[in-house]
Design a protein that fits this description.
about 200 residues; alpha/beta; Purple Acid Phosphatase, chain A, domain 2; six-stranded mixed β-sheet; 5 helices; globular
């Protein structure tokens, strides 16, 4: 199964310079946030494939009006094509935005998922906006990762952890894919296609 990840920056390849067939071979689209509703609507419409998303730290508009035809994975496990996707959007709190959380607030969101985690026996993909602490994040509050995401990976060993928020052009030589234990960590900024 081919999965297209998108986040933070609209991809010219799939949007401005779109031509029929660009989404051929894509089975599922995962969005890690901070993309306009119109972009998500375009991707799900032109691909004809499921698009699962979480919110970025700048996605207050999607709180009021969700993306049409797309599946929000916020604070739940969503199963698509047999793949269990756990969604936790937002970033580390650096101001009073609606899609920002302290470490304790994110831990509380995860604790509320215990019944779903038990019901589904874990998850295959952790889909977030922010990275995990110490894996492709920075020391600034605005781009700090969450410790509790590492704890989730340590406990459930998902195949993939897909996040956004850390732009590839920040000049920090952030790798696109990093291995953390049994989990492949993918920075989805812009677009990235991988085989599940």
């Amino acid at each position: 199964m081919k999965i297209l990840t998108i986040s933070d920056v609209e991809s010219d390849r799939y949007y401005n310079y779109y031509t029929p067939g660009k989404f051929d071979g894509v089975d599922l689209i995962l969005s890690c946030g901070d993309l306009k509703r119109s972009y998500l609507d375009f991707c799900v419409t032109m691909s004809g494939k499921p698009l699962v998303y979480v919110l970025g730290n700048h996605d207050e508009a999607l709180l009021k009006e969700p993306a049409g035809g797309c599946i929000s994975a916020e604070d739940r496990i969503t199963v698509v094509n047999g793949i269990r996707i756990l969604g936790l959007g937002g970033s580390y709190r650096y101001n009073d935005g609606q899609c920002m959380y302290t470490e304790q607030e994110m831990k509380h969101r995860i604790r509320k998922l215990w019944l779903q985690l038990r019901k589904y026996g874990g998850f295959d993909i952790l889909l977030t906006h922010a990275p995990a602490r110490g894996i492709n994040d920075t020391d600034t509050l605005s781009h700090r990762g969450f410790e509790c995401f590492r704890e989730l990976m340590d406990k459930y060993h998902p195949k993939y952890f897909v996040h956004g928020h850390i732009h590839m052009n920040y000049g920090m030589n952030i790798p696109r894919v990093t291995q953390y234990g049994e989990t492949a960590v993918i920075n989805a900024c812009g677009d990235y296609l991988f085989e599940y």
